Amino acid sequence: MQPTSEDPASRGSLSDLYSIEGTLPRPSSRKPSTYWYWNLLYAALLVAVVVLLFLTGAPVDDAFSYPDAPRHALNGAFMLDLIRDHPFANPTAYSMNYYIKYPALTILFYPPLFYVLLAAFYAVFGVSQSAALGAMFVCYVALAIGCFRLARFWLSPLEAFGVALILAGAPEIAYWGRQVMLEIPAFALIVWSAVFVVRYLHEKRITSLYLGIALTVLAMYVKLTSGFFLIVCAAVLFETRGKALLRDRHSYIIALLAVIAIIPLLILTLKFGQTNIQSVRGSADGDVTGTSISEWVWYAKQLPTQIGWPCLAATAVGLGLIMARRNSVSQYTILLLWFAIGYLFFSAISLKDTRFDVAVLFPIAMFAAIGMRELLARWPRTAGPAIVVLGIVTFGLTYFGRPVQYVSGYREVTDYIAKTAPRNSVLVFSGYRDGSFIFSMRTHEERRDLWIIRSDKLLLKIAVSRSQGVQQKLMSADAIAKMLDDLGVRYVIAQPGFWTDLEAMRRFEEVLHSPHFELVRSFSMRANYHAQENEIVVYRNLGHIASRPADLKIDIPMINRTMSSVVNKN
């Protein structure tokens, strides 16, 4: 028999809210094992949902689309190589050489924790996009089950399953959860942090609070902006405990440990993440000024595409009913503060993207469930099925309406280069999706001897994106050809017309079309949207290629550094 959806604690006291078995009344005739059965069943169903999403919509064979995704994947490969090679004598030189060989590395620009997980998967399954997606799958499942467990503090098993299904199937979650990105791993840690914080509020076991705060700190080591949840935790604790919180020695111990743990991350950010800091103060990409009304309503406008209109409509009902019944507000304090603080936090950051605020979607799904349950209060047994139906509708909107974008074909290019290029060859890649090519090249363990240089690093100086300014290194066509010869470049892999509106890049393409180079192979790129490229062309250098090692210096404005290394062509 399915557990009932009736939930008297929705109108009870604050202590009722934090019942560790949820707020569901347990009939005396029912054994506790029955409840474990339903919990395990729903967890298994959530795993099946995530499996379905990955089997039908996760791009493989290095078919990345979003430029950051292959960079995150490459960072995991670097972490694996660092552990294997353990260059403790000179890790700085090792990192520089690695970047010179694979110039899509962003290991210092982002926190490192997720890359440790990637390295573990690579160590077992080999370096590949599929292995990286395996790590994402684990994080996605952890998020879905965490949402179910957290929702159980307020809802019956069936209702909590509906909430988790809404989150797992939400368009924004499913889109970024099936790419090698940081948002879902960080969100999973935040949700489990909330599980232990809420458990502490019920049980008063201090170990739960220690663990809850520790998980938020770990989330910051995946994505720095996860720190907003520390503010949520502090606000909830102060609201529920008042001045007693200030008299508790554990409050100061936890705060001190959190600060100590965060200091290395802050140092890394100040030293290498100036672009992240700039995105908070203002972005040249943004359409907002930092003080306009449009900035504060930007994320509100994105909610329909992030979680779907049906869920959003139910959310409005749930929030309205909560606020109308003032005596019930305290039951949902953490949810209200989670959404309010999170929304204000991400809105205050000038750089906007729909993936940035996915961590505030859990309260929205919960408000939707509360709204459905209150509307069906006269028929309590229908609330759970109705919430599940809402989750299925949300999943359907995602499954049929928002597929994960991909650009396929880079695997064929790197397979060809791996078979053709002489040992210790130097390659130049010129194209928008340099990360896809470079990561795909790294997956060829048998060709770790190849060096890759990006054409934009040779001829341009770009901080993060073109819209933030470009400095061109103007050289004649003959000078460009000589530079490529001196660097020992044997092949150029190029996207036709790549940034040829810039004079330096136009001259570079002119060299490729000159007798100095020979077109040897063309590859078609396939995409499920209008991508920037539809062809990649391989050129062979016919000039006098230098055989001696060459010094190469690469400017990295993103971290205000210039890296130099010797390109070994022997």
Describe the structure.
Helices cover 57% and strands 9% of the residues. The protein is built from 23 helices and eleven strands. The protein has helices at residues 14-17, 32-57, 68-85, 91-101, 113-125, 129-151, 157-169, 171-177, 183-203, 206-220, 228-241, 249-272, 274-281, 293-307, 309-324, 333-348, 361-375, 383-401, 410-420, 434-442, 455-459, 477-486, 503-512, and strands at 407-408, 426-430, 451-454, 460-462, 470-472, 489-494, 517-524, 526-527, 535-541, 550-556, 561-567. The strands form four sheets. A five-stranded mixed β-sheet has the order 3-2-6-9-7, with helices on both faces. Helix 7 packs parallel to helix 18, helix 15 packs across helix 17 (361-375) and helix 22 crosses helix 23 (503-512). Residues 1-30 and 283-289 have low confidence and may be disordered.
Helical segment count: 23
Helix amount = 55-70%
In round numbers, the mean pLDDT is 87
Proportion of β residues? 5-15%
C-alpha termini separation:
72 Å
Overall number of structural domains: 2
> How are strands sequenced across the largest beta sheet?
3-2-6-9-7
Q: Given the C-alpha coordinates, what overall shape results? A: elongated
Number of strands: 11
